[in-house]
Fold:
Amino acid sequence: MISLQRTSGEPYSNCISLGWFCGTASSLSKLGLRSNSGPFDWYFSHYWAVLNQIENNFQDFMKKENLEIEKDNKRIFKDKKYGFYCNHDIKDDFDAEYDDIYKRYCRRVNAFRQAIVQPTVFFRCIRDQEEVDYINANWDYAEKLLKSFNTENRIIYLYSNELKGVTEKVQSVCLNIDKYIGQLYEMRHMFD
Structure:
């Protein structure tokens, strides 16, 4: 069992998803831990890209010139620069809806920026074995970056049974599931 208390015994002010996919935020929400809707909650992401966006203060986050619609599904768009796949935002027409989508993400970014200066615990579901390798090589960079906003911030990595070799230098938990499942019911119960 993971303690969600700081070393002082006080609870963290915020629990925030750093994604991989929407199951992270969905499971946090089900447990009543999710602080608010964040910029990384509702799409597929690479961890390096999440950290890069945080480090560069979201300078080119969701900029239209970086986005392209999927050829096979007009309700999915991809950020060509960072590899984010967004599949929850377009209802009918990307061009007509882009301004609203962008404003929604700007609100999420602003809420994220305000939250992380308070003691925050971040959760990242590890995407694949390649991401395990990235974390093992860059755990100190990620920790320093997140602690630069508040020294009490911490990150908990969550992974499925199929992933192996997460460094002992980070706090990680095996979810005791074989793989991440894309069904709503299963996603909301991943952390049980």
